[in-house]
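pasting for ref
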Amino acid sequence: MTDTKNAWNLYLVKSMFDPNNRVTIWKEGQFLFSDLKTLQGSDKICTFFLNEDDYIIGFLIDITDDQVLIRGIGDEGDDDGISCYYIDNFIGLRYDSLVEKKIKLLYDNQAEFYE
């Protein structure tokens, strides 16, 4: 029984960190609105791309017709505060990649790391 449970746990962890689960969407500005709207209030950490070399990692808190409110999360899972961006500044987004999953794991367990 223990071997079966361990195998199942290993499968769950492996599937959680499967790089093929990544979702990347390349659309600009208002074309991203519906994709952003589906992430509103979710617990998914996303990477929001502003241009090729500029991005924000965090949770989408709220969205209006032209602005997005994001709770920024640092590379080590620390809270970077809340920022507001114009939707027209976005060129894409990504979630469920290994980067976001690692940051989510650190964020969810930050009490253990920052005691």
